[in-house]
Amino acid sequence: MQGDLRIVGDVAAAFCDVVADAWESRTGEVFTIALSGGETARRCYEALARHADTPVDWSEVRVVWGDERCVPLDHEDSNHRLAQESLLRSVGPVAEIHPMQCDVADAYDRLIAGIDVDVIHLGLGPDAHTASLFPESPALDAPADRFVVPNEDPLGNNPIPRLTFTRAAIAAGRTVVVTVEGASKREALDRVRSGEDVPAARIDRPGVVWLTDPAAAGS
Question: Do the strands 148-151 and 162-165 form a parallel or antiparallel pair, or are they unpaired?
Answer without folding.
Answer: antiparallel
